[in-house]
Amino acid sequence: MAKLQSSFKNMLLVLTGISLFAAFALASVYTVTKDPIDEAKAAKQQSAIEQVLPAFNSLGEAEIVTIDGVEMNVIKAFDASGNYLGAAVESYSNNGFGGEVRIMVGFDKNGSIINYSVLEQKETPGLGTKMVDWFKPQVEKEKSLIEKIFGFKVASVERNSSIVGKNPGENKISVVQDGGEIDAMTASTISSRAFLEAVQYAYAAYINDPDYKIDTTSGATDSSEETEEESPLEPEMVESAVATSAVATSAVAAPQATMPDPFVTEEDNSNGTHVIEDTINREEVPSPEVEAAVEEQTMPQPVDTATIPQTTETMQDGHSETHVME
Fold first, then answer.
1. Residues forming beta bridges with residue 268, ordered by sequence position
2. What is the DSSP string of 106-157?
3. In the 8-state DSSP scheme, what is residue 176?
4. Where are the strands (E) in the chain, listed by range?
5. What is the pLDDT of residue 271?
6. pLDDT for residue 55 is more than 70
7. Tens of pLDDT along 224-265?
8. Which residues contact 166 (CB under 8 A, 6 or more apart)?
9. For 165-183, what is the mean pLDDT?
């Protein structure tokens, strides 16, 4: 078999063949997985509808309502007698920290929120992902093993984060930082704003009012940031900070007490010494006069050379003889 020559024409044919094969493979995979993916989405949507609505007998056809360019599905629910029970609205917001946040919100016939379900979100794990349960009523947690052993209970922090039972037409469904009534998720204010924005759009679609005012405050920041915008401190942290500040303020404001001088100097005229007293040691220090007298006595006295006898040394017969001269 002859070797294929390297030329522009041959390279183009080879690359075209590889591209066509890859495209065919991808199309085949999409075709094979499309139906299961659609079925999974439909099942998840149906489950969400059942979660956010009271028991119903039948559902109406999905109605598409557009508010500010946002298309939402409104699905009405009826009982066995055909009475209107409420509606489930599929809504979304593109202002999440990780992108789109898609939810299903159920409203009763008076417009109050029955429940919600998160369909899709790409928020930060452990932070924005808490939206799945954060905006529902708090559930008392089971006691930990330590609490069971020692018989005590750790008090949980009460928060006003639930939207269940609230009517967006009567309650301000936005985070506290924006003047609303809902406590944002800890360290996830951006995700909280996006979620509540989607809830507001759902309510606008539910009442089918294009003029309904949506609070679109997103608080979005540069996508290069790794952490979300800070949320307010937890109540116990605020109380601790206030207590610490009060202690520090009282310590600064308190008048400084005048401390007595720990060293007291007294002159003892009887022995010519100065007595220095402190709270730890007591010692006697000689006075300057006594020190001068001691120093004078210990200094070497000059020698009078006139009184020293003069001597001479001579040698006689190998012996040394010393003579004193007067």
1. 273
2. EEETTS-EEEEEEEE--PPTTTGGGHHHHTS---PPPPPHHHHHHT--PPPP
3. G
4. 58-59, 63-67, 70-78, 84-96, 99-108, 113-120, 264-268, 273-277, 282-286, 310-316, 319-325
5. 47
6. yes
7. 333 444 444 444 444 555 455 554 455 444 444 444 444 444
8. 112, 113, 173, 181
9. 94
Query: Which are the contacts of 266, defined by CB distance < 8 A and separation ≥ 6?
Result: 274, 275, 277
Question: For position 320, what pLDDT does the model report?
Answer: 55
**pLDDT grade for 109, boundaries at 50, 70 and 90:** very high
Residue 95 main-chain phi, psi, to 5 deg: -100, 15
| Radius of gyration (C-alpha) of the chain in whole angstroms | 47
Reading the block at residue 294, the tokens are 């001691």
Q: Is 48 exposed, middle or buried (0-12, 13-18, 19+ CB in 10 A)?
A: buried
Residue 74, Cβ density class (10 Å: 0-12 exposed, 13-18 middle, ≥19 buried): buried
Residue ranges of domains in the chain: 44-138+159-242, 261-300
CA 18 to chain centre: 50
Please give the single-letter amino acid code of residue 177: Q
Q: Measure the CA–CA gap between 221 and 227, rounded to whole angstroms.
A: 10
Q: How far is CA 101 from CA 62, 98, 118, 212, 223, in A?
A: 20, 8, 8, 21, 16
Q: Give yes or no for residue 180 having a pLDDT over 70.
A: yes
For residue 164, name the pLDDT band (cuts at 50, 70, 90).
very high
**CA angle (21 as vertex; 17, 25 as ends), nearest 5:** 170
- Written as one letter, the residue type at 102 is R
